[in-house]
Amino acid sequence: MADWGEVARTACDVHHASQHQDELADVLVLVADLAPTVIVEIGCDRGGTLYAWRQVCQRVYGITSADNSHAAGGSGGPLDSHGATVQVGDSHDPATFDWLTGQLDSDPVDVLVLDGDHTYDGVSQDFTMYAPLVRPGGLVLLHDIAVTNDPRAQVYRFWPELVERWPDTVEICSAQHTPYGWGVLRWT
Ligand SMILES: C[S@@+](CC[C@H](N)C(=O)[O-])C[C@H]1O[C@@H](n2cnc3c(N)ncnc32)[C@H](O)[C@@H]1O
Hints:
By secondary structure, the protein is an alpha/beta fold.
């Protein structure tokens, strides 16, 4: 079995993942448990999490904005896809959605990672558009459910609505430091 703690450390320390290492390690255990064949990530920044997903799954798709500035929620650095197939564009653009469905060719998504537009409207639109591509029993992961100090980051407002509607959810929020937090929802 892979050492997910080491994968998380490499993703953060070497490949610039915008993550807390302990939270990423815990979420990797859940993702690996599914033995996923298709993972989709919205919001890739420098590709640190793409690196992590690629250690679990051969077939990874990324969708990320051409604008990776701090204002857009990115770190400003260049993207390394780590072997994922990446579309640079706005996740809310129907053409981007069409690109993904073309790539999937009717195959379901095992794991959907939402880490792009963190506004309330942005993350809820990503969920509404892309979660139906996930197979029953697959996972939808929302990053930054615990962040409340950045006025643009509003995932913490959307996540409780999902907890009310879906019976099977888990929160991965570090006890070691102020968490970014992952919300994990099993799609039905
Ligand atoms: C927080 S970063 C992603 C961090 C990355 N998942 C990681 O952990 O290393 C958010 C990313 O989402 C991108 N983004 C913001 N709005 C977007 C949109 N509407 N469509 C696609 N990507 C978007 C930003 O450019 C940025 O690269």
